[in-house]
Amino acid sequence: MQTSPDRHEYPAHWEADVVLRDGGTARVRPITVDDAERLVSFYEQVSDESKYYRFFAPYPRLSAKDVHRFTHHDFVDRVGLAATVGGEFIATVRYDRIGPDGTPASGPADEAEVAFLVQDAHQGRGVASALLEHIAAVARERGIRRFAAEVLPANTRMIKVFTDAGYTQQRSFEDGVVRLEFDLEPTDRSLAVQYAREHRAEARSVQRLLAPGSVAVIGAGRTPGGVGRSVLGNIRDAGFTGRLYAVNRALPEGQKELDGVPAHRSVRDIDGPVDLAVVAVPADHVPEVVTECGEHGVQGLVVVSAGYAESGPEGRERQRALVRQARTHGMRIIGPNAFGIINTSPRVRLNASLAPEVPRPGRIGLFAQSGAIGIALLSRLHRRGGGVTGVTGVSTFVSSGNRADVSGNDVLQYWYEDPDTDVVLMYLESIGNPRKFTRLARRTAAAKPLVVVQGARHGSAPQGHAVRATRLPHATVSALLRQAGVIRVDTITELVDAGLLLARQPLPAGPRVAILGNSESLGLLTYDACLAEGLRPHPPQDLTTAASAADFHAALSRALSDDRCDAVVVTAIPSVGEGSVGDAALAQALRSAAAAAPAKPVLVVHVELGGLAEALSAAASTAPQAGTGQPAQPAPEPTPSASAPGSAVPRPPVPEPTPYAPEPGSAAAQQPAPEPTPSPPASAAARPPAPGSGTARPPAPEPASAAARPPVGEAPDGTHLIPAYPAAERAVRALAQAVGYAQWRRDAADPGKVPEYDDIDEKGAAALIDGLLARGQGLTLGADETCDLLGHYGIEVHRALPAPTADAAAQAARTLGYPVALKATAPHLRHRADLGGVRLDLADEEQLRRSYAELTELFGAPDELRPVVQRMAPRGVDVVVRAVIDPAAGAVLSFGLAGAASQLLGDTAHRLIPVTDREANTLVRSIRTAPLLFGWRGSAPADTRALEELLLRVSRLVDDHPEVVAVTLEPVVVAAHGLSVLGASVRLAPPPARDDLGPRTLPAY
């Protein structure tokens, strides 16, 4: 690297990995003197036309002087960056600082000329756009605020790179050259452009992994058994539609097949492209495999090999090296230590995982950081019993293992626009970038439900996960996720419960619930569960145990037609005796009634009615199985066998449902359900041939268009599948989560606005902050400085005068005016009125001196107590307002009532800054003790409008000035009219880096 004394130190923090438009990756780094040969080689591969566009004249080769100029930089006034793949340049960009006359200059000149050159083979991949983001960030860091670029009019691609970037621009035309000038300060549009490009690139990178045209399993053993051989068999048996290869360097010379799959000793020997490689070799051999894959042009890796960060420090370094090596070749990684990936689309049919059976095709996207939890989730979705019953399938499944590269954020980018996914379920043990996850979750949740369960909530992240630390407690992170529309659940059982309801039924319009069934006791349990979950249930309707299928149909129809009802919970217990209702008949009755009112969700709570849950989902049996054209068979019945989790055990098919329209009590209503006609089991011979074997395979069915695809929760015949639950509390909890999510969707449609206040002095506050920070890197402001800063934002703090002696206390009271309060502000007594360190409503000097003597007698000398005198504020409700900037999650505003009880119960609400007026309104009302602000038990209601305005002003302060890293207002007394801020503290520090405002990068390794 450059070491000359006139050079600045090599800026290693400018190095970054980026995802390009086509889903591949590239490395961005500064150009140094060591890159002379790379630069010459790169230039030789650029077409004459591109060279002409760069230099405005024929320029076949670089001179020695050119090479020196383009590789020697001071990293301040002259900077060059290169995008590399495989260690070789694919594009370059540089800037040179210029003065007002356009000649080279140094600071404080704040303008620079910028120029790009992209290898023709890599044009159209978004390389120039990514480099522009990075060179702009470098320029801002070096005090440059404006770029100028001269472009030939025919170079339309480069003009588009500049104009599409979203910066404020000026364009002129002179002497046959287009001159573009643009400010580098990020704008709302430039950030929107950056996020959109990030979304497209990351979604495409995941799509390349989940829908490959060819797969090689590297490490497929020569003998049955083992991880690699198992994955190979799973891909083959699933009927993968692309080309499949087995790779094992220990294969005998003449062996050309393995289990009917073309076999090779190295991926280099494969004749044709390989899109995805599943790596199942010992960790020590993985680097060699990655090198071969990179040289062969493999696009992505699924690394199921273990022995990485989960095994300790040595493995963690091995994992870092793996990621760096893969990114060098432009590949993305799922894993290492991954369980694998599944795509049930008939266009792909990929089971590159250790799951022995492919889950049924469906509309649920499933992400799990843990292989064991992934197995459990697949099993619960696949089987009946032990979880939510019925038939609901998976669109795609990703188990990320140590998630060294591809994470939940990347998969969210893919699922957001995936037409085959309607509901997203995620098991997360860590969130590497909470700020980004929250942003992506909010966007996803506005389009489709996102249900998340977090593991490792009360401890550190698993060893294999490299994540940034957050100072926020888990409860705060959960609250912020809920604010973003995430449905937060605590267990994988709840994850599946909520997911299947959302996948099968429409969202409820409100919290009003009708309850009906043939068991009074079960109805009452459901009623109590609704009240506990904050729903508004109607009294249960008991149909008695003698109820027929027609009775259920009639009662459900009446409930669904009632405008006062938003959802219906049906409870059912077994009935005995002659004429008892059959499972199939009851299921058909419920489905028929629900189909007549498709806008309202219906749930069933069943007790020991396994056949009912199966029959409720029987509509799914009309769905053609991938590649067969035959109706899909129902989900397998679980048996107490030692089969692997997620494996399927065949069960008799369910009869096809018939339209239900008998009148209650009619003869047709009493007819027993038709006997199912068993179909012969599928033999091994019926399996699709091994991909790549050369044997003809039935063509994959054409994908259904968006118009032809049934809406979320619907069977192909247009009826909603009704989810069934084995316990009332589980059904009601899932319904309550759906109600809350539906309300969030309605609120998100009108999120409110961040109000403007005429009395806010943003410039004055900025000048004050700059002056204060000049004294040090981080400091807690004194009382006067705190009052001054808050005053610039219209927040008045009641003055508290120090009282080191009784005479000083009396003088302070005369200055402020009686009545006053006397408070001890020592750390162990501050804000602890329950300890007796506060005396209120002191009407005269005699009471003040007596209280002063009592405090000193109880708690010690004045220098220990630090007493202050403050004018009394109107009585009201004491609350606390806090704001903090967390390095991982961003700026967070918190609110709660003051006092030990609220702290003990953790009754605090949180919102991400900036807060809108609607969010401030809901923030005040979201704590459990909120009724105290609204006239609880006859008290005077507090002025919540003034409280909301205070929250908005604090939010504006922190959002406008990221140097304000912490604000605490405690206590704030909210009276019937107005409020009083009695205590405040502010901490300033240089703001933490905002990775969401910088250029797009992958997490550093």
Layout of strands and helices, then pairs:
Elements lengths: L15 E4 L5 E6 L5 H9 L3 H8 L8 H8 L6 E8 L2 E11 L12 E8 L8 H15 L4 E6 L4 H8 L5 E6 L2 E7 L4 H23 L3 E5 L8 H12 L4 E5 L9 E2 L2 E4 L11 E4 L6 H11 L3 E4 L9 H16 L3 E3 L5 E4 L6 E4 L7 E8 L2 H12 L11 E6 L8 H10 L5 E6 L5 H12 L4 E5 L19 H10 L3 E3 L2 H13 L7 E6 L2 H13 L3 E2 L3 E2 L6 H13 L5 E6 L10 H13 L6 E5 L3 H7 L50 H4 L53 E2 L2 H21 L13 H12 L5 E2 L2 H9 L8 E3 L3 H11 L3 E5 L13 E5 L2 H15 L2 H4 L1 E5 L5 E10 L3 E8 L2 H6 L2 E5 L4 H9 L18 H17 L3 E11 L4 E3 L2 E5 L17
Parallel strand pairs: 5-6, 9-10, 9-13, 10-12, 13-14, 14-15, 18-19, 18-20, 20-21, 21-22, 23-24, 23-25, 23-26, 26-27, 27-28
Antiparallel strand pairs: 1-2, 2-3, 3-4, 4-5, 6-8, 7-8, 11-12, 16-17, 16-19, 29-39, 30-33, 31-32, 31-33, 34-35, 34-37, 35-36, 37-38, 37-39
Helix pairs in contact: 6-11, 8-9, 11-12, 12-13, 14-20, 15-20, 16-17, 17-18, 23-24, 27-28
Number of strands: 39
Choose one word for the global shape: flat
- Total helices: the number is 28
Distance between the termini: 20 Å
Task: Kindly report the average pLDDT value.
Answer: 84
Brief synopsis:
By secondary structure, the protein is α/β, with parallel strands linked by helices.
Q: What does this protein look like?
A:
- The chain has 1005 residues and is α/β, with parallel strands linked by helices.
- The protein is 32% helix and 20% strand.
- It is built from 28 helices and 39 strands.
- The strands form six sheets. Strands 1-2-3-4-5-6-8-7 form an eight-stranded mixed β-sheet, with helices on both faces. A seven-stranded mixed β-sheet has the order 11-12-10-9-13-14-15, sandwiched between helices. It has a seven-stranded mixed β-sheet with strand order 17-16-19-18-20-21-22, with helices on both faces.
- α9 (313-328) links the parallel β14 and β15 (332-334).
- α14 (492-504) crosses α20.
- The two termini are 20 Å apart.
- The relative contact order is 0.07.
- Mean pLDDT is 84; it is low at 1-6, 384-390 and 619-718.
